[in-house]
Amino acid sequence: MDARCGVDLGSRFVKIAVEVDGDRRFLGPFDTAEFYRKHIEAGKDGGALRKKDFGLGEEVRVGATGYGRARLGGGAVMFPELEAIAAGVAAMTGIREAVILDVGGQDSKALLVRDGRLADFEANDRCAASAGKFLENMSRVLGMDWEELGRYREDPVELSSTCAVYGETELVGLLGEGWPVERLAAGVNRAILGRLLPLLARFPRRTLVLTGGVARNRALRAMLADRLGVEPVVPEPPDFVAAVGCCRLLLEEV
Questions:
Q1: Residue 198's closest CA among 113, 125, 120, 124?
Q2: 230 with 95: CB under 8 angstroms?
Q3: Which band of pLDDT confidence, cut at 50, 70 and 90, is reported for residue 74?
């Protein structure tokens, strides 16, 4: 039996992909702190995944990526996050030549992929202003969930702050001036678009793949298509790409 488990230990959420004899299933996302409390036990070489919690036998091989990968022991194989993302996109879409824009909870990066392998990349500093944390904070201020925030892109109100913390303060002030929340939500989506576009500037974009939880934002997808003239390809589910990539890279460890 061929059984592999990929674990993406992100800053905000943990995503798991399990592949058994060609069948793939997804577990999570799990809140990262809660996941560590419930499903990781101390071992000699770091924290070990409680495989039985997910119905996995001890024979299942585990690959890990993401910010928390270095903490995972118990025989888990560690993979660099960018390589896992490139491998995951190839596995989920069959696309081997592309620019991948990955927007996670606390950072974002653009990857140039050739023949299914990472060839180059551009990353922002670890800053919430161009990541999912920014949208999470802003949607809370606007009193709407992520799905609703992703509906609005028309007639945006301009947000001048380039900082997630000050941007929240600015948004509260604009609410106080009586601006409609729909236009403010569109302004939030346009603000993060403006912070992501520079990452893509030096790469060709015949094929653009959007990954990470922010890829669920439909307004951002449409705004990227309008600005770049390329309709982004979004693997489903987009936030499990790195976990699937770990499963794919484990094949090469045999």
A1: 124
A2: no
A3: confident
What global pTM score does this model have?
Answer: 0.91
143 φ/ψ sector (left φ>0, alpha ψ -120 to 50, else beta): left
Three-class secondary structure of residue 230 per DSSP: coil
Summary count for the chain: helices (H), strands (E): 8, 11
Q: Of the candidates 75, 79, 87, 82, which has an alpha carbon nearest to the alpha carbon of residue 111?
A: 82
How many angstroms from the chain centroid is the CA of residue 139?
18
pLDDT tens digits, 167-176? 788 999 999 9
Q: Which two tokens stand for residue 124?
A: 């922002």
Of 11, 24, 1, give the one whose Cα is nearest residue 237. Answer: 24
Provide the pairing of β-strand 208-211 with 77-78: unpaired
pLDDT digits (tens, 9 = 90+) for 33-67: 999 999 999 887 788 899 999 999 989 999 999 98
Q: Which amino acid is at 196?
A: L
How do strand 61-65 and strand 3-9 relate by DSSP bridges?
A: parallel
